[in-house]
UniProtKB/TrEMBL annotation:
Origin: domain of life: Bacteria
First-to-last residue of the parent protein present: 487 to 739 of 745
Protein name: Diguanylate cyclase (GGDEF)-like protein
The EAL domain, residue ranges: 1-253
Signal sequence segment: none
Lineage: Bacteria, Bacillati, Actinomycetota, Actinomycetes, Micromonosporales
Amino acid sequence: LSLRTDLQRALQEHEFRLQYQPLVRLDTGETAGVEALIRWHNPARGLVSPVDFIPIAEESGLIVELGQWVLETSAAQVAAWRRTHPDLTLNVNVSGHQLVHPRFAANVTRALAVAGLPSGAVTLELTESVLMSDPDAAVASLASLRELGVQLSIDDFGTGYSSLAYLRELPVDELKIDRAFIARAELTGEDLALVRTIVELGHILGLRVVAEGIENAAQLEALRRLGCSYGQGYHLCRPSNPADIPQVLARRS
Ligand code: G
Ligand code: G
Ligand code: MN
Ligand code: NA
């Protein structure tokens, strides 16, 4: 069976699951939100990484349906967790193919309405490369999404080709520093200076800045000292099954 045919079947047979990775406030150590991350458990193939199946889902167009499932499932899950943690927010990764779909805004609205999750609790993550492949079109789609009240994030920042001019024009709320900048080393010297510069750039533009890929205590401490507001990474918490999240919400990192 080709991966493409198998994906369609997998969606019908409920082989996809979501894990959630906390976004931690670095000043208090509290979990502010969670990022939904898709997983495919296939009896024959085992656990397949989204790195391998998302591109195929994009080529075949299935990403629209799959992305909608992610949105609906994660919105319902976070709405449930908000009964005990009312300020918890949700980050969802969105593919460029979803962004340009004419009904994307309507689909987002419907998913959130069904789940009973306020749009202000949701941040849609788009990669820098998607935004920069057609910046003028991106600005237009992002503006219409933002009218719904959802927030927008630039994921994997620093790996694409953002021009500073466009960065200023993009209607976004959050910038996620790609883990390549964080996990490279002990975060000293040039690496540290580079990350400090990105944090400052984000703050100058009025954005929430999230450092991804924090893997050790030294990196965490360095980012706290830089005044980076949020962090994510294995050292704080691995992507986790939904059943394990309530105990994560109860503790501080
Ligand atoms: O979780 P993991 O490290 O395996 O994720 C690998 C890649 O898959 C990351 O780039 C991540 O953004 C992407 N990814 C994970 N979940 C989703 C999803 O629901 N939709 C899209 N479009 N990408 C996702
Ligand atoms: O592209 P995106 O940033 O959405 O990718 C998120 C993925 O990064 C997660 O799915 C997760 O599996 C992975 N990830 C999260 N924290 C860490 C980390 O500390 N180190 C590494 N190497 N990967 C991480
Ligand atoms: Mn992401
Ligand atoms: Na990222």
